[in-house]
Amino acid sequence: MRAHQLAVALVLGLPISFVRAQYTLKKTYQGSSFFDDWTFYGNFDDTNNGHVIYLNRQDAFSQKLVSITQANNAIIRVDNFTTLPITSPTLVEKRNSVRINTNDLYGVGSLWVADFAHVPYGCGVWGAFWSTPTNTSINFAPWPTGGEIDTFESWNLIQDSHYTLHTIPGCTVTNPSQTSSAFASMDCSAGNPVGAQGCSSNSTDQNTVGPNFSNVGGGIWITELASTGISIWFFERANIPQSLKGNATSLDTSTFGTPAFNVPSTSCNVGSVFKPQSLIFDITLCGEADYNQTQTCASRGACLQNTVWGNGSNFDEAYFEIQSIKVFQSTTTASGGSSAGSTAPQPTSSAGATSSGSTSTSGALALLATSASASIYAVVGAAMFLAMLSA
Ligand SMILES: *[C@@H]1O[C@H](CO)[C@@H](O)[C@H](O)[C@H]1NC(C)=O
Ligand SMILES: *[C@@H]1O[C@H](CO)[C@@H](O)[C@H](O)[C@H]1NC(C)=O
Ligand SMILES: *[C@@H]1O[C@H](CO)[C@@H](O)[C@H](O)[C@H]1NC(C)=O
Ligand SMILES: *[C@@H]1O[C@H](CO)[C@@H](O)[C@H](O)[C@H]1NC(C)=O
Ligand SMILES: *[C@@H]1O[C@H](CO)[C@@H](O)[C@H](O)[C@H]1NC(C)=O
Ligand SMILES: *[C@@H]1O[C@H](CO)[C@@H](O)[C@H](O)[C@H]1NC(C)=O
Ligand SMILES: *[C@@H]1O[C@H](CO)[C@@H](O)[C@H](O)[C@H]1NC(C)=O
Questions:
Q1: How far is the CA of 80 from the centre of ligand 7 (A)?
Q2: What residue's CA is closest to ligand 6, atom 2?
Q3: Which fold has domain 21-331?
Q4: How far apart are CA 52 and CA 84, in angstroms?
Q5: Looking at 148, 224, 236, 321, which residue is catalytic?
Q6: Mind listing the pLDDT tens digit for each residue in 98-145?
Q7: Which of 111, 107, 180 is nearest to 147 (CA)?
Q8: Can you tell me the distance from the alpha carbon of 42 to that of 38, in angstroms, rounded to the nearest whole number?
Q9: 297 φ, ψ to 5°?
């Protein structure tokens, strides 16, 4: 956008959300090659105390816990065909499942679009699509150094999915673009105080989880990791913006409307708190997810004995069906010609893009791009206008 266009927009009081970042397609995970570039965990669930063993690549394929459907969608599921003995005195406490993470890392200036047709649900089921720098080969400790973004998370039969950030201390939520009352917690830090659950909000959309999600044909989640803040949008199939339909290779976040979840960089220095992220799928069972929260599950009795044991039919719906994951990279040239001192965010390369925290937009543009409140628009807009006049 040219400076004079921005000036006109500001003078007329037009919404200037179109300042928001533009992205181009960087990497697609889809179809028969979907699983090619992921690492399989190959260990029991040693992070959430769930009753699962996450299979290695070879076993996950041979046991068909991962597969590609005739419709070319990727499936990630829990074993629902093995009967675990209920009466054995030597308890069989773990069922096979899958956890995978991308080999490429995506830093600040990245955006990923996850298109699902089905998400896991059922008593004892805890499925998530999330990201963190954690590598199964490199122990990136202590958690949550490098930051964690939970784009989709649902457990048992809860009626809404959850959006959460986990960070080191010092990252909080102020002036999010969505209503702040949706936040259960505004402090994104985990472990300070011990037990803090990160900054978390519940989806207000009834169709993000369970049978409702597949009944509407599924949908997409968009996660934006920008220096201006972290945002997540959800669209069920019928509401996917035109700009994202088909095989769009570029997109502009200004066409997405208000995000479902937004943590602006105002009081969370995204560029320094969030290191390049590996995208992760996992489905664990029981463990730390609050089984008793869903009455119909709690009434069945203890989670392990009443879901994990037995013939596995409890897990028929415990799977992700994924149409694609597409990762985009920022190409925003901000407002060329503006004298507000803005510089274009640097494109972020994927694998090993460890310097991506340097993505820089001017403070003013950063604020504008964060769906700030009208009053912030006014103040910053006036400052930018003056800056342009004096150029
Ligand atoms: C994890 O570490 C392995 C081995 O060092 C490396 O090949 C892989 O690219 C890394 N993946 C991520 C996401 O860091
Ligand atoms: C499904 O959505 C409807 C509204 O469309 C809502 O009444 C119902 O509670 C939802 N069911 C679940 C399991 O979330
Ligand atoms: C969010 O959902 C959780 C569990 O489903 C519930 O305990 C909590 O009260 C909800 N928070 C808000 C703000 O609705
Ligand atoms: C998008 O690309 C996929 C994979 O190449 C292809 O199967 C599909 O038909 C394309 N969709 C559209 C709308 O062009
Ligand atoms: C859930 O309820 C059962 C039975 O009342 C109890 O034994 C168990 O400790 C509870 N679990 C949690 C996580 O509160
Ligand atoms: C699996 O176990 C459940 C609960 O014990 C039972 O209701 C169901 O009939 C069993 N299904 C099969 C195919 O054995
Ligand atoms: C496992 O669940 C799938 C549906 O997700 C179903 O098609 C399949 O028959 C189930 N397997 C068994 C052994 O019941």
A1: 6
A2: 311
A3: Jelly Rolls (2.60.120)
A4: 12
A5: 148
A6: 999 999 999 999 999 999 999 999 999 999 999 998 754 455 557 888
A7: 107
A8: 12
A9: -80, -50
- Asked if the bond preceding 85 is cis, omega within 30° of 0, the reply is no
Residue 351: pLDDT band with limits 50, 70, 90: very low
Which residue type occupies 306? N
Choosing from 138, 148, 277 the residue with most ligand 1 atoms within 8 A of its CB, the one to mutate for a pocket test is 138
Domain ranges of the chain: 1-20+354-391, 21-331
Mention every residue, 6+ apart, whose C-beta is less than 8 A from residue 38.
Answer: 29, 100, 101, 102, 103
Average pLDDT over the chain, rounded to an integer: 79
Provide the β-strand partners of residue 162: 202
Does the pLDDT value for residue 185 go beyond 60?
yes
In the reported structure, the alpha carbon of residue 316 is separated from the centroid of ligand 7 by a whole-number distance in angstroms of 5
Query: What pLDDT is recorded for position 243?
Result: 86
- Residues 6 or more apart whose CB falls under 8 angstroms from that of 9 comprise 15, 16
On whether the CB atoms of residues 228 and 147 are closer than 8 A, the answer is: no
Between 347 and 102, whose confidence is greater?
A: 102
Distance (Å) of CA 214 to CA 45, 116, 207, 292, 354: 27, 9, 8, 25, 37
Do 220 and 116 meet the contact criterion of CB atoms below 8 Å apart? Answer: yes
Question: Which of 79-83, 92-96, 127-131, 161-165 comes out lowest in average pLDDT?
Answer: 92-96
Ligand that comes closest to the CA of residue 211: 2
**CA distance linking residue 277 with residue 275, whole number of Å:** 6
**Residue 190, token pair as written in the block:** 């985990």
Answer yes or no: are the C-beta atoms of 320 and 116 closer than 8 Å: yes
3-state secondary structure of 182: helix
- Identity at 90, one-letter amino acid code: T
Helix, strand, or coil (residue 95): strand
Distance (Å) from CA 246 to ligand 4 centroid:
7
Quote the pLDDT of residue 13.
39
Residues having CB within 6 Å of any atom of ligand 2: 159, 206, 210, 212
Q: What angle do CA 294, 281, 370 make, to 5 degrees?
A: 85
